[in-house]
């Protein structure tokens, strides 16, 4: 269960010769077997990054590798579900799944794909054209799961699903990860639903990596402090607010904190929101080299 | 078999919730030695949490000697906790007491407060032992 699922080195992408940089200087590494959330404001570059990983876009500068090779070489080993869930509208669900099986000879897992469709009470003879947005998402995910990929790239997968379908499909995703060690990379705006599911975070803002690394380590590197307005040197202040005499701040401590501060560890939501509100906060990338990545799946799975 | 219920608003770390709920099931005799815990796959499919969280909880239970992982077979209960199965006389007494408390017009919170205060009198030194992280 060691190895790298995705690695970017100074990745940059510009649309048009004199256009804006959609991504710039992106450097991060994602270990195989992780479940990674990509978060960031609208237009931050999340979809552009996923499209690079899927091999649909070429970097203007730098490199991005998936599963240890180029996206083109790894094409059979990952699945990508774009934000608009492209499917053939004139095909039925059953025909769509058959297409999946024909396009993925030797890999296709019919049972897993059919189960995901069946869980949504969808009739296999229904034409894709007549499906609702959430139902299309389900079929697109069935297609992606059926491929039995080593890496799942999902762009806003849960956006148009009802709460039950969300929970079901997130559960199905986690089950894949548990049983097959599938790496999952998904972008989302719904931070609450990511907190329990993800173990890695990639926060992108304005085309740059802002935070990257194991979720536990990133949360542990930050502290929410409240207290009398005073100096916070030498700690790195991500965001601070003063109300009357009281100061509230999210900081990255550098050494022990004075006793007069009340401290709590931030939630994922607090961490992300503080960074989104403070675009100027310094970048933090943690590698998590000391992780004891589970070798004990055998017993518990 | 137990089913875990994850409360996202409790402020208790998810893996600690799994540890606590397993211990609760052991205390109540809902799990007994030899029983199999649900697989990580089963837990995450039902709760949509990260598989590592389940493994972390199971490792913690294993470290405390309550369960053991048998490679390729699953995770099994090694020993039970406490001596209060669901059908014990002590539970029946408590059940009768709770009934009387209710008849006396006490609210749920009143009963809980009363129970906790008695609990604290008798178990001063090991309050919440083993469940805190």
TrEMBL record, chain A:
GO molecular function: ATP binding; ATP hydrolysis activity
Family matches, as Pfam families: ABC_tran
Keyword Transport attributed: yes
Record domain ABC transporter: where: 6-231
Source taxon at top rank: Bacteria
InterPro entries per the UniProt record, alphabetical: AAA+_ATPase (IPR003593), ABC_transporter-like_ATP-bd (IPR003439), ABC_transporter-like_CS (IPR017871), ABC_Transporter_VariousFunc (IPR051782), P-loop_NTPase (IPR027417)
Cross-referenced SMART domains: AAA
Keywords of the record: ATP-binding, Nucleotide-binding, Transport
Record protein name field: ABC transporter ATP-binding protein
UniProtKB/TrEMBL annotation, chain B:
Ranges of residues in domain HTH gntR-type: 12-80
One Pfam entry name: GntR
Cited CDD domains: WHTH_GntR
Domain of life: Bacteria
Family matches, as InterPro entries: Tscrpt_reg_HTH_GntR, WH-like_DNA-bd_sf, WH_DNA-bd_sf
MF (Gene Ontology): DNA binding; DNA-binding transcription factor activity
PROSITE patterns, per the entry: HTH_GNTR
UniProt KW keywords: DNA-binding, Transcription, Transcription regulation
PANTHER family in the cross-refs: GNTR-FAMILY TRANSCRIPTIONAL REGULATOR (PTHR38445:SF7), HTH-TYPE TRANSCRIPTIONAL REPRESSOR YTRA (PTHR38445)
Protein name stated in the entry: GntR family transcriptional regulator
Organism listed in the record: Streptomyces acidicola
Lineage, highest ranks first: Bacteria, Bacillati, Actinomycetota, Actinomycetes, Kitasatosporales
């Amino acid at each position: 269960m060691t190895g790298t699922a995705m690695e970017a080195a100074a990745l940059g992408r510009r649309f048009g010769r004199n256009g804006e940089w959609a991504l710039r200087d992106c450097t991060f590494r994602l270990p195989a077997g992780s479940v990674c959330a990509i978060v960031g404001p609208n237009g931050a570059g999340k979809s552009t990054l996923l499209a690079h990983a899927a091999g649909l876009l070429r970097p203007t500068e730098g490199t991005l590798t998936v599963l240890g090779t180029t996206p083109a070489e790894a094409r059979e080993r990952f699945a990508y579900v774009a934000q608009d869930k492209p499917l053939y509208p004139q095909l039925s669900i059953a025909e769509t799944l058959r297409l999946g099986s024909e396009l993925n000879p030797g890999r296709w897992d019919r049972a897993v794909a059919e189960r995901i469709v069946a869980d949504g009470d969808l009739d296999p003879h229904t034409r894709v054209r007549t499906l609702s947005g959430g139902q299309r998402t389900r079929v697109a995910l069935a297609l992606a799961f059926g491929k039995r990929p080593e890496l799942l790239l999902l762009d806003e997968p849960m956006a148009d699903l009802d709460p039950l379908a969300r929970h079901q499909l997130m559960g199905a995703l986690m089950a894949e990860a548990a049983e097959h060690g599938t790496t999952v990379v998904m972008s989302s705006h719904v931070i609450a639903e990511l907190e329990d599911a993800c173990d890695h975070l990639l926060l992108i803002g304005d085309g740059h990596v802002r935070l990257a690394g194991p979720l536990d380590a990133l949360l542990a590197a930050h502290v929410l402090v409240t207290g009398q307005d005073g100096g916070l040197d030498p700690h790195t202040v991500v965001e601070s607010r003063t109300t009357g005499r009281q100061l509230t701040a999210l900081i990255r401590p550098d050494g022990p904190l004075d006793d007069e501060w009340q401290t709590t560890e931030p939630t994922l939501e607090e961490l992300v929101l503080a960074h989104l509100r403070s675009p100027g906060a310094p970048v933090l990338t943690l590698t998590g080299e000391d992780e004891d990545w589970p070798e004990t799946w055998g017993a518990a799975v | 078999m137990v089913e875990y219920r994850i409360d996202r608003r409790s402020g208790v770390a998810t893996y600690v919730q799994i540890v606590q709920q397993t211990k609760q099931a052991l205390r109540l005799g809902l799990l007994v030695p030899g029983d199999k815990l649900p697989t990580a796959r089963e837990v995450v499919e039902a709760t949509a949490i990260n598989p590592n969280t389940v493994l972390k909880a199971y490792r913690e239970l294993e470290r405390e000697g309550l369960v053991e992982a048998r490679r390729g077979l699953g995770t099994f209960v090694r020993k039970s906790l406490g001596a209060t199965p669901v059908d014990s006389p002590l539970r029946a007494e408590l059940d009768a007491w709770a009934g009387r408390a209710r008849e006396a017009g006490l609210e749920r919170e009143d009963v809980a407060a009363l129970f906790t205060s008695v609990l604290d009198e008798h178990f001063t030194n090991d309050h919440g032992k083993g469940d805190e992280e």
